[in-house]
Design brief:
Radius of gyration: 34 Å
CATH superfamily of the domain at 16-32 and 210-290: Efflux pump adaptor protein, beta barrel domain
Helix content: 25-40%
CATH topology of the domain at 16-32 and 210-290: Elongation Factor Tu (Ef-tu), domain 3
CATH architecture of the domain at 16-32 and 210-290: Beta Barrel
Oligomer: single chain
Distance between the termini: 41 Å
Number of strands: 14
Length: 300
């Protein structure tokens, strides 16, 4: 405990290394945008139309598949049932009939009351009954609209998940997995092969934007003050034979993730690097030199 106390006491007094433009930092390359596309229902792959590295546009079909029979039956039953508003609409018809009957009785009661041949209270009771029915009519109409809106939303959700239009509530025989973003196919689940049966999966296909790419690094607190967003850096990628790139700082964390007093403090820094020939891949190691000097050769 005494040694730990002394370390904590004198740690702030230790000299911090000054920022050096020749210092190198390790980083990892990653996609600026990456989306995992799910398959929400069990099925059978009919045709896989892409492979890792395929360039795709928004809306392109990546996979054609059929649903398992029991899954198709369940979805068809859900669509055939619709918004389930039949009972509510029947109740509306009954209310309309009751309003007509009460309206006739109320008119007759008012005539008798005006001629001083009937009770005023009778007309008031009939009018109150009509008010209650009208409020019921409003509430039921609002409920019908809510149910129909929820069903339209559910149908749109199914169309998005299945990649096909559900015209007239009919389930087609073949479905599509489409990409919602443009980019490159990065990963495909190993079970997605022609003729294979698959279970629901959240991570079926990964699509990423690969030009430009991003690099994330951790920079020591004594060096972070010398960096600014928009500043330039040289990057060496060992996996590409020490090929050099120019990168731009786009983000510097304002707080470290680790605030422990007995450990050094590092801040996350993100850089953007052009990748027109798509040679950079997510996960590649990058050796970064901030500032204007050329990067030193990568260490084996």
């Amino acid at each position: 405990m005494r040694l730990r106390y002394l370390i904590l006491l004198f740690l702030p007094l230790l000299p911090c290394p000054a920022f050096s433009q020749d210092a190198t930092h390790n980083g990892k390359i990653f996609c600026r945008v990456m989306r995992w596309l799910p398959l929400n229902y069990s099925g059978v792959v009919e045709a896989l139309l892409v492979s890792p590295g395929t360039q795709v546009k928004e809306g392109d079909i990546l996979l054609r598949y059929t649903l398992k029979e029991e899954t198709a039956r369940e979805l068809q039953s859900e669509l055939s049932a619709g918004a389930r508003t039949q009972d509510l609409r029947l109740r509306l018809l009954e209310i309309e009939r009751e309003l007509l009957e009460l309206g006739e009785k109320y008119a007759a009661s008012r005539r008798l009351s005006d001629a001083r041949m009937g009770s005023e209270d009778s007309a008031k009771r009939l009018n109150a009954g009509m008010d209650i029915l009208n409020r019921q009519k409003i509430l039921i109409t609002e409920l019908i609209h809510e149910k129909e809106a929820a069903f339209r939303s559910r149908q749109a959700e199914l169309e998005s998940q299945l990649g096909v239009a559900l015209d007239k509530g009919k389930i087609p025989s073949v479905f599509h997995l489409k990409t919602p973003v443009a980019g490159q196919v990065l990963l495909i689940d190993r079970w997605l092969r022609d003729g294979m049966v698959f279970l629901p999966m959240q991570n079926a296909v990964a699509i990423g934007t690969v030009d430009p790419m991003m690099i994330r690094s951790q920079v020591y607190e004594g060096e972070i003050a010398g960096l600014r967003a928009g500043g330039k850096a040289h990057v060496v990628v060992p996996s590409l034979g020490n090929r050099e790139f120019e990168a731009t700082i786009v983000h510097i964390d304002k707080s470290p993730q680790d605030l422990a007093l007995d450990r050094p403090t590092y801040y996350g820094v993100e850089l953007k690097v052009a990748n027109p020939d798509l040679s950079l891949r997510q996960g590649f190691k990058a050796i970064i030199t901030f500032g204007g000097s050329a990067p030193r050769a990568a260490q084996p």
